[in-house]
Design a protein that fits this description.
The protein is built from 5 helices and 12 strands. The chain is α/β, with parallel strands linked by helices. It has a single domain, classed as Class I glutamine amidotransferase (GATase) domain (Rossmann fold). It is globular. The structure holds glutamine (GLN). Glutamine binds next to helix 4.
Length: 193
C-alpha cells in the first residue's frame, strides 16, 4: 500500500522540477506528465508557473487538456495551478485569447501587480494555516472574480491570490520556490488515493 497518492506535475514548460522536489520532500510519489497516458495513475495534478500561453499551446498539441478535463470529470482529479498554471485552469483570462482548460470558475488578469514590481515576496495570511506563508510572486496574475462555488483563501493588498473550488486550487504565487511544504502537504491530502 502506498502511503501517499501519486501526484502528477505537468512537465511541458516552467518550474515543474521545483514542484517535484517539494512533493518528494514530503514523501509523495511524483509523475512528470508530458502525455495523456502519464495521467493514468495520478490522483492529483500540479500545473507549474512558467508561461501560460506556452503551457496552453503545448497542452493542446499533446491533447493533455482534454485528458485532464475527462479525468477530473470521471475520477475527481485534484488540480492545483500555480501562477501560469492558475491562468491555464481559469474560466476567463481578461484581455487575452489563449488556449486554456477551463476548470475553475474564476477570472484572472495576467501580470497584475505592475511592471515596476515584477517580482516580490510577501507574507500571506492563508485560511487554514496558523502562521503566515511566504508568497513568492513573479509576474503574477490576480484572481479578479470568483464564482459562487469558489472560496477565497488569501488576499494580498485586497487582491485575491489563492482560491479553491472543491479540490481545484489556484494560487497567484509560487509555494514551490520556498522551503515551506505546508501547501503541498495540504494538496496531497486532498488528492484521493
Ligand atoms: N506572467 C506569466 C503568464 O502570464 C506567469 C508568470 C509565472 O508563472 N511566474 O503566463
Amino acid at each position: 500500500m502506498r502511503r501517499y497518492p501519486r501526484i502528477g506535475v505537468l512537465a511541458l514548460q516552467g518550474d515543474f522540477r521545483e514542484h517535484r522536489l517539494m512533493l518528494e520532500s514530503v514523501g509523495a510519489e511524483v509523475v512528470e506528465v508530458r502525455l495523456p497516458k502519464h495521467l493514468r495513475d495520478v490522483s492529483g495534478l500540479i500545473i507549474p508557473g512558467g508561461e501560460s500561453t506556452t503551457i496552453g499551446k503545448l497542452a493542446r498539441e499533446y491533447e493533455i487538456d482534454e485528458a485532464v478535463k475527462e479525468k477530473r470529470k470521471k475520477e475527481g482529479l485534484a488540480i492545483w495551478g500555480t501562477c501560469a498554471g492558475a491562468i491555464w485552469i481559469a474560466q476567463r483570462i481578461i484581455g487575452h485569447q489563449q488556449p486554456h482548460l477551463p476548470l475553475m470558475d474564476i477570472a484572472v488578469r495576467r501580470n497584475a501587480f505592475g511592471r515596476q514590481v515584477d517580482s516580490f515576496e510577501a507574507l500571506l495570511e492563508i485560511a487554514g494555516l496558523n502562521t503566515p506563508f511566504k508568497g513568492v510572486f513573479i509576474r503574477a496574475p490576480e484572481i479578479v472574480d470568483v464564482g459562487s462555488q469558489v472560496e477565497v483563501l488569501s488576499r494580498y493588498q485586497g487582491k485575491i491570490v489563492f482560491a479553491r473550488q472543491g479540490n481545484a486550487w489556484a494560487t497567484s504565487f509560487h509555494p514551490e520556490l520556498t522551503d515551506d511544504a505546508r501547501l503541498h502537504e495540504m494538496f496531497i491530502s486532498t488528492a484521493k488515493n
